[in-house]
């Protein structure tokens, strides 16, 4: 670092690359700069510098001692239950709609492109359109995922949680013969990126994130322990007659396992919905504003 410029070393005998720092970062000590990445913007057709900075701030302690459990889903990103059985379902159907739109438009463009000669003018034009579509769709999905994980982190902090336990869904769909529709849903489910965002957002608040086996958590009745295949968004137990939201049943089972080691010790006391954002489609369709809304308990 020299004269408010960052010097990036190259091979021996070559002059270092100088990158001017913005005023907000120019006063930081040299030890604060951890890494510099050169990232290509496929939409803007240019390179950008991404700088990783260590702010030297220690994360605070946990706000409380409560344990929360989250049931991750493809329709609703997460249903979070506390020790009392209160469940908050974080709804973001826009994320699923973006995935469906991505596959539909991509299939249409690829079908048109396959009928053209590779490298021709029309082929290159469709290729640029595909690149723009994917880049914009990725930005929109990341924006929604950041809003979802921020809302979950805020809720965990308000509940004075010490840890958030989530079901390990990394092996969902493996070893099973899924239909084409379900394969598309599973492949577009960005649970790994959401866990990544949650991990560092929760750590900044002093809350730890843990994974646990979530096998049969959605099928097992939280009241009697019988297994039923849920239909739609409502869980109905044929053995004891329990009726509740499907995701709420999975969330309290996750909470029960985190606290007691097995399912069936906690039942949903109340179920609320929370939308971390609202997206309107006026004019360009890119107008978005953040809000949090809770519906009345079911």
Question: Can you describe this structure in just a few lines?
Answer:
The chain is of the alpha/beta class. It contains 6 helices and 14 strands. It has helices at residues 23-26, 93-114, 121-158, 180-187, 191-204, 246-260; strands at residues 5-8, 17-20, 33-41, 46-53, 66-72, 78-81, 86-90, 161-168, 208-213, 234-236, 243-245, 270-274, 277-279, 288-290.
Task: Give the topology.
Elements: E1 5-8, E2 17-20, H1 23-26, E3 33-41, E4 46-53, E5 66-72, E6 78-81, E7 86-90, H2 93-114, H3 121-158, E8 161-168, H4 180-187, H5 191-204, E9 208-213, E10 234-236, E11 243-245, H6 246-260, E12 270-274, E13 277-279, E14 288-290
Parallel strand pairs: 5-8, 7-12, 8-9
Antiparallel strand pairs: 1-2, 3-4, 5-6, 6-7, 10-11, 13-14
Helix pairs in contact: 2-3, 3-5
């Amino acid at each position: 670092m020299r004269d408010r410029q960052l010097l990036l070393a190259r091979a021996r005998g070559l002059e270092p690359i100088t990158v001017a720092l913005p005023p907000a970062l120019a006063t930081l000590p040299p030890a604060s700069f951890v890494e510099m990445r050169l990232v290509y913007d496929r939409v803007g057709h240019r390179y950008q510098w991404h700088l990783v900075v260590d702010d030297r701030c220690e994360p605070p302690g946990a706000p409380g001692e409560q344990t929360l459990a989250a049931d991750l889903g493809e329709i609703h990103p997460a249903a979070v239950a506390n020790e009392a059985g209160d469940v908050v379902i974080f709804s973001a159907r826009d994320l699923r709609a973006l995935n469906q739109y991505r596959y539909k438009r991509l299939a249409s463009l690829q079908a048109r492109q396959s009928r053209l000669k590779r490298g021709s003018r029309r082929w290159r034009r469709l290729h640029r359109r595909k690149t723009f579509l994917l880049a914009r769709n990725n930005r929109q999905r990341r924006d929604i995922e950041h809003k979802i994980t921020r809302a979950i982190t805020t809720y965990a902090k308000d509940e004075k949680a010490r840890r958030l336990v989530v079901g390990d869904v990394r092996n969902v769909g493996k070893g099973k013969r899924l239909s084409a529709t379900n394969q598309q849903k599973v492949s577009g489910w960005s649970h790994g990126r959401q866990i990544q965002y949650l991990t560092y957002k929760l750590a900044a608040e002093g809350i730890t994130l843990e994974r646990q086996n979530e096998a049969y958590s959605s099928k097992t009745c939280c009241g009697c322990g019988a297994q039923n295949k849920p239909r739609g968004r409502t869980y109905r137990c044929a053995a004891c007659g329990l009726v509740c939201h499907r995701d709420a049943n999975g969330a309290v089972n996750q909470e029960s396992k985190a606290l007691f080691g097995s399912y069936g010790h906690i039942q949903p006391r109340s179920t609320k919905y929370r939308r971390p954002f609202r997206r309107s489609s006026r004019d360009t369709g890119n107008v978005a504003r953040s809000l949090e809304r809770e519906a009345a308990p079911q």
